Amino acid sequence: MEEGNSAEERNNAEASKRIRKRKPIVVSTDMEEGNSVEERNHVEASKRIRKRKPIVVSTDMEEGKSVDERNHVEARLFAPFRHLEKIGYRLRLLENESLAVVHVPGLSDDAFDVDGNCHVWSIVKMIGRAVDFAHCYPLDSSERFFLDYGILFDRLFTFMASSSFEFNKCLYEPLVSKWPLKVNVQLGYIGKSSTNFVNNVVEPSSGEILVRNINQLVAIDKETRKPTPFPSWWKEKHGEKAVRKEPLIVQKLSKPDNAHTYTLRASWSETDLYNHVNWTSYVVYSIDALRHGIKEGVLRGMNKEVVKNGIQRMQMAYFGECVEGDQLTVYFWEVKDQPRTVYFDIERDGTSVFQNTLTYHQ
Predict the structure, then answer these.
(1) Are residues 162 and 42 in the same domain?
(2) For a 10 Å CB count at each end of the chain, is N or C smaller?
(3) Is the per-residue pLDDT at 331 higher than 90?
(4) Strand (E) or helix (H) holding 43
(5) What is the pLDDT of residues 219-261, one digit of tens each?
(6) pTM of structure
(7) Domain span holding position 317
């Protein structure tokens, strides 16, 4: 275990070892065919960097400041994350500050379906919270942030353009502990006005990578609400830390005429701080549509037995935004000779706002 872990974390690790009385599952470093050399190198690098001594982020205020000054700084910088701190979120950096390790308590009790599998949207939400924590939690009272990402928000928004997930099959094994977990966050790529981050969910006691995620983001100017280039200083300062070196490109799907449909209305509980439908909500819409198709018997290759095996891959692309009250139509279909795979296209007023591809484990 890494230095500084709590007694509870160490006890959980020992308990996990005793429960599993078998050879630990080893995650293959062979990525999906077609992935770049940089991605494969990243997996190997992740193994090496776990052995390096991390920097523990301190929340101590600078000496010499008055109580009022310290309270003001703490309220402005740290207060938005106090609830996460209270439930166990911790941020640690490697010596070169190119990797953020977010310790999270794990999945909640309502994160599992009737088959005992993790809801994929619960995993997506957990990764989203951990990435936000890594990006925006201040490293100290001098307003330093991991990769200076928090500073970018002074004039920029980011829009999720695309996202990919690979779920290790051991994620769905009951004996593999989901409490606590670590989320490793690294810069993947910086382009002119887009960037991506590589995020790995790790089981601490074994070091197994349970989920691998890449999120492609586009910089949006707060005033014009249009894509805008990243500052040159940010690219020059952090560009060499990128581990992927290429954008995540998800090809747009071509919806067939015989696609099945599922309709819904976006609700307030599915929106985010910007009052837009949260990017994770579209995952819920996709799986609800899939379950509807299974119940209605309109899918040939998908049934309850297939979905029990859990999702293996998920690729998403975002084209627009939705708000509370929008009427949405989820189109879904299968393709011959592509088993255990379902495609989705979500439209608002006849315009595609989101597409998704789900492939299940054998």
Answers:
(1) yes
(2) C
(3) yes
(4) helix 37-49
(5) 999 999 999 999 999 999 999 999 999 999 999 999 999 999 9
(6) 0.81
(7) 250-362
